[in-house]
Amino acid sequence: MVGFCLVCTLIFLKMSIRVPFLTICIFSLLNVSAQLNDTVLSIPGVEIKADKISIFSAGLKIEKIDSTTLYVRKGISVATLLSEQSPVFIRSYSSGGISTLSMRGTNSTQSGVFWNGINLSQPNMGMADLSRISTFEFSDISLQAGGASALLGTGALGGSLHLSNTMDYSSPIKTSVFISGSTAGKFGAAIKMGAGGSKIAYIGSLSGDWNPNDFKYTDFNGKTKHLDHALSKSVSSIHQAEYKLNTKQKLSAGFWYQLTDRQIPPTMTMATSDQTQWDRAIRSSLQWQYIEKRQSFNIRTAYIDEKELYQSQSALIDAFYHLNTLQSDFEYKRILGKQFTIGFGTTTHVIRADVPYYEDIEYQPEGAIWLGLAYHQLKNGVKSVLNLRQDFSKGFKIPFCPSLSAEVPVSKNISASLAISRNFRTPTMNDRYWLPGGNPDLKPEESWNLEAGSAFQLKQTEYYQSKISINIYSMFINNMIQWVPGNTSIWSPQNVLKVWSRGVEVASKTDFKISGFNGYFRLGYNYTPSTYRETKETEQSIINNQLIYIPIHKIAETFYVSKGNHYVMFSYSLTGKRYIQSDNSKALNSYSLLDFYIGTDFKFSNSGFRLQAEIRNLMNKTYQSVQNYPEPGISFSVNLLITI
Amino acid sequence: MRTFKTTFQVLAFLATISFTSCTKDNEDNQQGAFSNGIFIVNEGPFQTGTGTITFYKPDSNLAKQDIFDAVNGRPLGNIAQAITLYNNKAYIVVNNAAKVEVVNATTFKSEGLIANLTNPSQFLIVDSKKAYVSDWIGQIAVVDLQSNTVTNNIAAGTGPDAMLKSGKYVYVANMGGLGIDSTITVIDFGTDKVVKTIKVGEAPSGMVADGNGRIWVICKGKGFTGWPQSGDTPGKLMRIDPVSLSVDFNYSFTSSDLHPEKLLINKQKSKIYFLYNYGIYSFNIETSGSSPEKLVSRNFYSIDYENKTGYLYACDAKDYINNGIVVRIKADNGLVIDSIQAGIIPKAFAFPE
Predict the structure, then answer these.
(1) Looking at the partner chain, which of B48, B50, B320 has a beta carbon nearest the beta carbon of A629?
(2) Which of A159, A358, A566, B336 has the largest CB neighbor count within 10 A?
């Protein structure tokens, strides 16, 4: 299957670029329809902002969402962006409901989400809701695939998502305003401002969304229904500032206020819902950096305050959660000789969780020490990194996590990478303290991850250039936590599962420039078998079955072309069937979605304008990402971006 | 050409299979595909799933899964609770979908829907014209069986659940829903009026009538088995005199960590059965001074009793996320007969008369 995909991709890449535009579109669609092809958003060699990653991540697969995609898909949620533009799987609980990241056959608690290196996963749930984060707020969005606990700590088993903004000291004041509206009643408005001088740089945004999610769907009787009780309102404001104290020292501050108030709609098998959820998060950080020619210090502290109110009158639920996290990091890096960089650091967290379903307010102190050694042979481009990390957490013995990775240029156009790592995830606060059932004796989940990759720069002409990358991996997860019923119907988490996730990820991108047309075609495919290796004695029949809600196949394709100030983009994704029972007796059907965007840029009175129209789910497909949560059919929206 | 021919043959073969299966289904339906068998209600997974109905034919030992969806082409709805057979109709209570589905008991084709309910739990045929539906919202809905509409609501206690018709009354166990209650509401079904509210133990969860028309009530007590908390209270087995409508027998279980639930009576009306202490218990109601005896040491989620065979049907929900099984047990001696493959979280039954 994968080999066939590769052949098809290569055939496509070898085609003359003089193929008419329409033919390319049709070809790309046929490719996907036949479930043959592969994608990923890769641009090799990107840097992620978290400092130690930029130096100590050689050999890891890091994909940055390209700036054109971010420009066209401005103002949507990060969940929607990844769902349509990337072959990773996003588990979506309907439009407006929570959406979480699932990478490399792992569940949502095993993939990390970071903002400038600060973990956004809620400590009680162990996952982050990507439906609440707008792409408008960030200039850099990157996906790192595979285990990276030796760098990032808990939760980075399947991979991680990184969000950040690039600070620009050279730019004068620059403001952009974004307004959008859709046929489902959504209205969004946002403003972003950046300013820079010789010593100071600032970027800040304020965005708000009002979305009734009033879309139609077909119920099980074949009748058209409106989704009820699905209003979602959100406000988010991010500010980042940097100040150069002198040529060597820099102070940075970050602040993020996020408020979401939403109704939780009924599932298709429920009559009504009166559930509501209100979330408010305030995240702030302060950082001091000292950078010399051959060494650097970095001290940072971050404080996160999260509140959540979950209510349901009919279920007599009025639950208020309050979580605080104080994080402090120290890092030192030094260049040794001509080829080595050494780094070490410490990190500490204290989590305070005031959750109504815990017996008391719980405190969870955590810490880690890290040592990294990076080798970079400038002459031949060989890079290699050894990371060693030991975490400490109250009540757990966390495994020592080493990682060794390398990146080797095989020839002018081919590079290869190899990485092996041990990774872990500590149980969430709910796993430990939830009443009833919380289990304080849980062990952390741990995994061994082995992966290899290769990137090829294919033929380049003045009209087009193509690249393709292939990654394979194998990951064994032990002590995986699952909530299971004990002798009664009281559920309790236990370290009962062993899972083997392995797969192949193929990505290609072809940029072209011909007769005034510029554009690209990007194709990504993830093949993700992830199966149970061991479980409770009574459930042995699930061994070798695919994990629930992990599609074995996911394809994402994007075709973008511009001429002059006008552009169009098609994006197509195909998500394979997902089992919904671990005995694999029931599955949700695969679904494919096609989206279309058309826009134009123009100038007026020294300001830049972009007007864009969008059609999502162009083929009006009926589908479910999670069982019985309806998703919208075809919808239309327009948006205006003004840059002053 | 050869490929085309092969493809054609495969398609023709598949079409034949489809046609054959359609024909078979139609024949089954015409002959009464779902007669002379047992219906098992499976709750389905709680959050996003749907309940299902398993049909089991004891003579052939075959179990057909999810027959409601198979016949009607749509899922039953979130959290199926109970099924009642009457007049060749099956009434299926679906709690979170706030409805009672009415289907033909032979073909299982949908014949109607009882709406205007909030959190329905149990369905009770009162007479040929009306039924009661207990609704956790705190009321009993009176349903006209001709029009399948709710014609009246009778106020009950908190979280009314089990119902029992005996004599001229319907007894309603107010289990407490997500809160706590400890009363039985007695309704004169001739007038649909509450005649008395009887104080019993906390969380009454099951009732049966013995040969003398006395009502036995099992009360869970406060708390959950497997999660002992301070303030928990032990369960109780009580009896209500149908004339004075007062409690005339009160047995208190010793442990406040274990909570009995479900209550069944055998065909001879001599023994009652309930779930307790990770097993099935029996209690001889004819011998005074007797105490509960453990019949089976195995934890079950729910249980029912079949008069025809004298078997207990005990539900093993396994991991609550995959299909469970129903274990058939001889009520006389606790011996396991066999087991039936069911759906996710098997809960309730309807046996053919």
Answers:
(1) B48
(2) A159
